[in-house]
Amino acid sequence: MSTDVSYLLSGRALHTFENLLFSDDPAVFGEVVFDAAGSLAVPLSIQGQARTGRLLITHGAGAGLDSKMLLAYRSALAEEGVQTIGMEFAYLREMRKTGRRRPPPKVECLVGELTPACDILSQVSQSPLWLGGKSMGGRVASMLAARDGAAGLVLCGYPFHPKGRPDKLRLDHWRQLSCPTLVLQGARDPFGNRAEVEGYTLPGSVTVRWLEDGDHDWQPRRASGLSQAELICLAAKETAAFMSRSR
Hints:
The protein is α/β, with parallel strands linked by helices.
């Protein structure tokens, strides 16, 4: 798919966007809105410099980019030289507007939402664009990468199966994944724990890094002697190292 960047993001908006993407300020953080389909305004938040890499990141089903885990992870990535470009799906933005919770649409619809953002960023970016996300967002990113390709994937707490349904695997499209793929998974994640995932046959392009005693949000139990902050810091370092090795 090819999209006219000047149509999606023109004039002042394009200038602002490029200033954020290529800022010399290591603490850069800002937001720009582009028109995804002639009628829908989609905000993208840019954080950090792309010294190591650039990652388009989306959120899980029940919480947006302002979740404690994603806020901390993006900040830690910025410290490691990974720029993140955050996108929230339309249903989540509508939840914010109305104050009413609602389920996400079918995952295929979310792939359609992510596509124009990926397209515009791939054209504007001067470095390879990686895709990723938390839980559902990672699944959406992986489906887009399986269909259209990507420089790489970072999947945070991938939902290998629905909670309590280890027989219903969400891996059919993984056979089409050829890009470097990093999975950052809590060892106790109820959507795919270590014992389960180590029994799967995954593509050779996939690397799984286990976050000791972490749950779906990388929160360890107190008895482990670890903290969520430590696991998030480790995940950010693993992400930066993986992206650097995969250049």
